[in-house]
């Protein structure tokens, strides 16, 4: 079951993000999410904005993802380009799942596609597993973007 996150989910969400970070580190992706990422302020903002979704299996939150509208850091792309056209799109962020969760990104893509036919996502260059999944679910590599903190991400679009 997928539903919007609630304030009472914060502890369960922290556990999901912590386990996802551990998996990233095990896979050699140690630079993308530091301890405490995403910060509580971002989680609370995503919940209050109605952007954060949880995946519930057997009454346990096992996955999470955020879907926002246009992403301001996508306005400038380099070493590539977005497909032509001024698209309305949604952006998937902070995809995370416990080891027991399956198909978290697929569920995020299905949910996002109900909101817009055009979906964008980015990930760290070290996150090889996520890159493979992004391509598997029909996204096309578009180029690189810079986050507000100055770090680089590789960006993709579907639709």
Features:
7-stranded mixed beta sheet, 4 helices, 7 strands, alpha+beta, 159 residues, Aminopeptidase
Describe the overall structure:
With 159 residues, the protein is an alpha+beta fold. The protein has a single domain (2-158), classed as Aminopeptidase, CATH 3.40.630.30. The chain is built from 4 helices and 7 strands, in the order E-H-H-E-E-E-H-E-H-E-E. It has helices spanning 10-26, 40-49, 104-113, 128-136; strands spanning 2-4, 52-57, 60-68, 90-97, 119-123, 140-146, 152-158. It has a 7-stranded mixed β-sheet. The mean pLDDT is 94.
Brief description of this entry?
The chain has helices spanning 10-26, 40-49, 104-113, 128-136, and strands at 2-4, 52-57, 60-68, 90-97, 119-123, 140-146, 152-158. With 159 residues, it is an alpha+beta fold. The protein has a single domain (2-158), classed as Aminopeptidase (3-Layer(aba) Sandwich), CATH 3.40.630.
CATH architecture label: 3-Layer(aba) Sandwich
Reading the helices and strands in chain order gives EHHEEEHEHEE
User: What is the tally of helical segments?
Assistant: 4
- Which outline best applies? globular
The residue fraction in helices comes out at 25-40%
Predict the CATH topology.
Aminopeptidase
């Amino acid at each position: 079951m997928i539903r919007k996150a609630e304030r009472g989910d914060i502890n369960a969400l922290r556990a999901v993000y912590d386990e996802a970070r551990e998996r990233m580190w095990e896979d050699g992706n140690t630079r993308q999410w530091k301890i405490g990422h995403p910060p509580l302020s971002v989680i609370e903002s995503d919940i209050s904005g109605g952007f954060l979704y949880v995946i519930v299996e057997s009454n346990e939150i096992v996955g999470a993802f955020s879907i926002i509208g246009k992403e301001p850091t996508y306005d400038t792309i380099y070493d590539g380009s977005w497909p032509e056209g001024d698209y309305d799109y949604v952006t998937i962020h902070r995809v995370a799942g416990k080891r027991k969760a399956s198909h978290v990104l697929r569920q995020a893509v299905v949910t996002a596609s109900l909101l817009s036919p055009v979906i964008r996502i980015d990930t760290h260059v070290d996150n090889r597993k996520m890159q493979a999944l992004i391509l598997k679910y029909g996204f096309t590599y578009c180029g690189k973007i810079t986050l507000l903190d100055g770090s680089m991400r590789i960006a993709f679009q579907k639709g």
